[in-house]
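Before the break, one more example. Copy the sequence into your notebook; we will annotate it together after we see the structure.
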Amino acid sequence: MNGAPGTSDPTGYDPDRIKCVVWDLDGTLWDEIAVETPTDELPVPRAEMLAAIDALAARGVLSSLASRSAPAVLDRMAAVPEVRERFLAPQVSWQDKSESLRRIAKDLGIAVEALVLVDDSPYERAEVEALLPGVRTLDPGEVPALLAAFEDREVTPESRERVRRYRTEETRRAEGERFRGTREEFLRWCDMRLTVGPAAPDEVPRALELAARTHRLNSSGLTPERLRALAAADGHELYTARMSDRFGEYGIIGAALVDRTAPGSWSVPLLALSCRVAGRGAAAAFLFWLMERARESGAGEFRVTLRPTDANLEMRILLRQAGLRRTEDADAREDGAVLARSLVVGGDLPKPPAWLHVSPRKDTDA
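Here is what the structure looks like once it is written out:
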């Protein structure tokens, strides 16, 4: 993806895979070397880099920092909030740049392959390319080409709010670290609520975005174009899930396409959820709600299309825990499978986690 070590390919950006751009400091964000300045004041950031960061944020792309420098530089940035607040999960230390990127991905809850590194040092780019071959690396001069890849992309309300919501997530994480109690007790204290219902017209773009941008909690990798076509077809319904807690709104975090064309069966060609809610029971709660809804409608079988990938192990485990098992099906994609389970009345269906309140949206009869 990056070409030979020490080089970067300026073509072929995939905006759907880029969730966070990680910026170097010295020689990239600003011209000087911060630890060599004669005062405690930070070097002046390059205006074009700040403009690029803001342009990406407007399209839902996060920014972080990875700089091999003294940690005190990050402390000094706190005195310049208009700069510091642009960056999430920053890493400023003498550790290898590849390790900084791993920590950023972990803190943000995204795949390391969803990162792009902008760094003026060929050595640092080569180190990342060698140890993290799925990460795209760029020289600062290639940033305009990166921005151009996003110019024609549809910007959803969720995209515009993404940076703010990740900042809220930092607050959640900090509260979780301070909380005296078990993980389950903390989740109960958060008062998480999931509301589910048929997608409204203005929610469809966000559902398409989830189909394209999610990987950990994505059952089939159905393309946005195919999802849009199927959602408009007779006998198909698109559902979305919203989530909130005491810290604020997560927004639309889940989408599921339901095919009801086969008598007595609900088939789900796509189940996709944002990685921001991984580990909080939302994926299980959404799936179990769909299964219960299918049984209430008279369906005797529930089916999910699964295309196993290196990224969606979490989804595969969830489907298995929900009692779905592989079945031979002529409609399955060549690189995928169909998993199914019975919904016979009287049989026990799994229940959502006790800490998560699940309800239909008030504007639907679901």
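The two ends are 45 Å apart (CA to CA). Confidence is low (pLDDT under 50) at residues 3-11. Try to locate both features in your own notes.
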